[in-house]
Amino acid sequence: MQPRPPGVLPSGAKLMKLKDSYHPYAAATIILWSCAYVLSRLALTYFSPFALGFLRYAVASAAMLVVAVLMRMKPPARGDLGWFLLAGACGFALYMVTFNMGCRTLNSSTSSVVIATAPVVTSVMARIVYKERLRLMQWAAIGVCFAGVAVLTVLRGGLSFSIGILWLLAAVVLLSIFNILQRRLTKTYTAMQTSAWGIFFGTLLLVVFLPTSVRQAAGAPGIQWVYLLILGVGSSAAAYCAWAGAFARAKNT
After folding, report:
1. Which secondary structure element, helix H or strand E, spans residue 184, and what is its range?
2. Those residues with Cβ within 8 angstroms of residue 169's Cβ, 6 or more apart along the chain or in another chain
3. pLDDT at residue 116, rounded to an integer
4. Crossing angle of the two packed helices 94-105 and 163-185, in degrees rounded to 10
5. Is 208 helix (H, G, I), strand (E, B) or coil?
6. Neighbours of 198 (CB within 10 A)
7. What average pLDDT does this structure show over 148-157?
8. How far, in Å, are 35, 154, 167 from residue 160 at the CA level?
């Protein structure tokens, strides 16, 4: 048996290293969230932005409930319920409505460009709330990432301006507030808990759209239910589970 070259890990060790890395989870999150732009546009050809928001997160809540039961997830402390309600409102209920309103009038590439500004807005909010300072390299990385997406979109002739951009800018602000709130909550709870309870509270707030959602869902074509299931289970529940896995592993690096 030949000796193993220096620095070369056995296959079992490689698998363990990959399992403990946040990269696969982060990649899965990006892919699942990316699907939402196209699928939302397709679903919005039939559903209203409000009905789609409720139905998507009703499906997501059902999926996350299974996860919560299997993990024996504990409910939040009474004193934190208000924070979870606010997180659910900003990160899911209001965000979903503004996101859908924007996606209804913009193409998928333009939507992705606008939402890509969320890290920048979050960084500014973190600077105000937590007195954080990003290093020059971190600002450069954000700028390069956003510029790359913008250039690719312009080259494809997909960048357009309309009232939809204002809706998506509102979605960016809401998502950034949610990110700040999550940072506070993850000091006490796991990323999985904050995501699950945020989804539950967000869905609860979207219940106001239940009547119109039921009417539209009753006559929905089969393909629209496929879009809903992928959006709810994949781009919502599974994406946040993957994000929680990435967050937990990134904290340990």
Report:
1. helix 163-185
2. 114, 117
3. 80
4. 150
5. helix
6. 27
7. 58
8. 20, 9, 14
Output the pLDDT for position 44.
Answer: 96
Tally the residues of the chain: 253
What integer is the mean pLDDT of 221-236? 96
pLDDT for position 9: 47
Q: Which tens digits make up the pLDDT trace of 167-188?
A: 998 999 999 999 899 888 988 9
Q: At which residue do the structure tokens 């079992």 appear?
A: 12
Q: Containing H/E element for 249?
A: helix 239-251
Q: CA nearest 240: which of 188, 186, 187?
A: 186
Closest CA to 90 of 69, 121, 62: 121
Spatial neighbors of 28 by CB under 8 A, at least 6 apart, are: 238, 239, 242
d(CA 25, CA 11) in angstroms, rounded, equals 20
What confidence category does residue 207 fall into, taking pLDDT thresholds of 50, 70 and 90?
very high
Alpha-carbon distance values, 13 to 4, 7, 139, 245, 253 (Å): 13, 12, 35, 20, 17
Give the alpha-carbon dihedral of 31, 33, 37, 41, to 10 degrees: 110
| Cα distance between residue 27 and residue 192, in whole Å | 17
Residue 1: the pLDDT is 46
Token duo for residue 145:
């990432």
Measured in whole angstroms, the distance separating CA 60 from the mean position of its chain's CA atoms is 12
Q: How far apart are CA 232 and CA 65, in angstroms?
A: 13
